[in-house]
Design goal:
41% of the residues lie in helices and 24% in strands. With 169 residues, it is an alpha+beta fold. The protein has a domain at 29-143. The chain starts with a helix and ends with a helix.
């Protein structure tokens, strides 16, 4: 009899929960679009500050702009070899702490990796192509302007709802 009551209790407690679950908050697609636009503008402002702050003679029309995602996609498209010196010699330079996303500008035989450190220092890493490997030529640094990253209203609302959902204080 005790087993039957226990089994009945388990069946009812799992079938008909007493508490009502609230739906987890989500970002709307419109908010995602606004975030994407804001992030692109933020990265453009950072790159503009880096190029101007370091007084680089870089005309972006003469360079092919590559992000880390694009570099990884190209690596996979062209074989995705495990030991690819060409890819690895470029990719290792993306492993930096930065504000915004590091940007690689590639031209014939040379490349610049531009980024802003968390302490607002502008950095340009110049790479030269030698024997199918990108090698460090020099690193140039200078103090940069602080560029403010602001949350959108829809992000703030989402974070507030998420905190309420998880009851985070």
């Amino acid at each position: 009899m005790k087993k039957f009551i226990f089994f009945l209790y388990l069946l009812l407690s799992t079938s008909f929960p007493l508490n009502i679950y609230a739906e987890m908050p989500r970002l709307s697609s419109a908010c995602f679009e606004k975030i994407k636009i804001r992030n692109e503008q933020f990265n453009r402002m950072i790159m503009k500050d880096v190029i101007q702050g370091l007084k680089l003679d870089i005309d972006e029309t003469n360079y092919f702009k590559v992000t880390e995602k694009e570099l990884e996609a190209a690596h996979l498209i062209y074989g995705g070899k495990e030991k690819d010196d060409y890819y690895e010699s470029l990719h290792k330079h993306f492993m930096v702490a930065s504000r915004g996303k590091p940007t690689l500008l590639v031209s014939a035989g040379e490349a610049y990796l531009l980024f802003k450190k968390p302490d607002h220092t502008n950095v340009a890493v110049r790479l030269k192509l030698t024997n199918s490997k990108w090698e460090l030529n020099y690193i140039k640094e200078s103090e940069g302007k602080p560029i403010r990253f602001t949350l959108l209203k829809c992000e703030k609302d989402y974070l507030q709802k998420k905190n309420e959902y998880y009851k985070i204080d």
